[in-house]
Design a protein that fits this description.
This protein is α/β, with parallel strands linked by helices. The chain has a single domain, classed as TIM Barrel (Alpha-Beta Barrel), CATH 3.20.20. The protein is about 40% helix and about 20% strand. The strands form two sheets. Strands 1, 2, 3, 4, 5, 8, 9, 10, 11 and 12 form a ten-stranded mixed beta sheet that branches. A two-stranded antiparallel sheet has the order 6-7. Helix 3 (about 100-110) links the parallel strand 4 and strand 5 (about 115-120). Helix 2 (about 60-70) crosses helix 3, helix 3 runs parallel beside helix 4 and helix 7 packs across helix 8. It is globular, with a radius of gyration of 20 Å. The structure holds ligand PBG. Ligand PBG binds near residues 202, 205, 218 and 274. Ligand PBG binds near residues 121, 123 and 275.
């Protein structure tokens, strides 16, 4: 192996054209999944307080947004719903006429190729804001799983292309796979939030989805932030239950986990750059402390470099525009 002065690593860094040629990781539009929040009403477009540039939209506005997203070349969205009524059983989650189900139908009618992924969880639909059915203060795993499976089925019946369970109940991937198959939807993939940590980075999302728990937290089902080997067990069990794509969430502070999961299973792997990751970049750039575009691309490139094949990010539209401008 050559050493200095024969070897000079800087040789490939002087010319920007050469730099482009040897770049190992590039963000492309195909990597992007754009999260969207649908609310009741018409003509509603309300900015989320803690997430500048992110809006709650009624179905009519959302449909227009989806057309724009498709036009920008972003392949996929993931949809979150805020229902008109919340109750103890989260019954709007699995209502065939619920907000997400209606939104999916309208989006599908008005776009041609946009991939519609739906988030499957109970926390936006329960009056107590927990991800499942409660017995006292305890979340009942198996009862919740039944309802999640029903929820996923109604999403797919409405036209969802992929379902993404984010609840972290045990056994939900298998239950969803079963109910989809029994109803003839053998070709619909499951993107499971396989490794989801109990993270402080979800703070702003709870403004967007109006899903903050009324008491307690999510530590009885989401993972302890300190654990990595457990992440591999979580991923393994979801793969065994039939998950087609596995997700690690959050992304930026868990690059080691993305890397380990990808190395160990070699599965299509998604990563979620969550609300807090987005809001921190937005806030610091608003204060003039960092260069927003630069840090946006750097954070996403790092997530991809760690092994993510696709990234859920609130920056998706900004990235698509950035890539278009770069081409010109
Ligand atoms: C649960 C869900 C959450 C997020 C995605 N799905 C919130 C939670 O677990 O509390 C967080 C996403 C983000 O912070 O951007 N339905």
């Amino acid at each position: 192996m050559a050493t200095f002065p024969i070897k000079r690593l800087r040789r490939l860094r002087y010319n920007p054209v050469v730099r482009d040629m040897v770049r190992e990781t590039q963000i492309s539009k195909n990597d992007l999944i754009y999260p969207l929040f649908v609310v009741p009403g018409t003509n509603v477009k309300k900015e989320v307080r803690s997430m500048p540039g992110v809006y709650q939209m009624s179905i009519d506005v959302l449909v227009e947004e989806c057309k724009e997203v498709e036009q920008l070349g972003i392949p996929a969205i993931i949809l979150f719903g805020i229902p008109e009524h919340k109750d103890e059983m989260g019954s709007e989650a699995y209502n065939p006429e619920g907000i997400v189900q209606r939104a999916v139908r309208e989006i599908k009618k008005n776009t041609s190729n946009l991939l519609v992924i739906t988030d499957v969880c109970m926390c936006e639909y329960t009056s107590h804001g927990h991800c499942g059915i409660l017995d006292g203060e305890k979340i009942l795993n198996d009862k919740t799983v039944e309802l999640l499976a029903k929820e996923a089925l109604t999403h797919v019946q409405a036209g969802a292309d992929i379902v993404a369970p984010s609840d972290m109940m045990d056994g939900r991937v298998l239950a969803i796979r079963k109910i989809l198959d029994e109803n003839g939807f053998i070709e619909i993939p499951i993107l499971s939030y396989a490794v989801k940590y109990a993270s402080g980075f979800y703070g702003p999302f709870r403004d967007a989805a109006e899903s903050a728990p009324a008491f307690g937290d999510r530590r009885s089902h989401q993972m302890d932030i300190a654990n990595a080997l457990e992440a591999l067990r979580e991923a393994e069990s979801d793969i065994e239950e039939g998950a087609d794509i596995i997700m690690v969430k959050p992304a930026g502070a868990y690059l080691d986990i993305i890397w380990r999961v990808k190395e160990k299973f070699g599965m299509p792997t998604a990563a979620y750059q969550v609300s807090g990751e987005y809001s921190m970049i937005k806030a610091a750039s608003k204060l003039g402390w960092i260069d927003e575009e630069r840090v946006m691309i750097e954070s996403l490139t790092a997530i991809k470099r760690a092994g993510a094949d696709m990234i859920l990010t609130y920056f998706a539209k900004d990235v698509a525009k950035y890539l278009d401008n770069k081409k010109k």
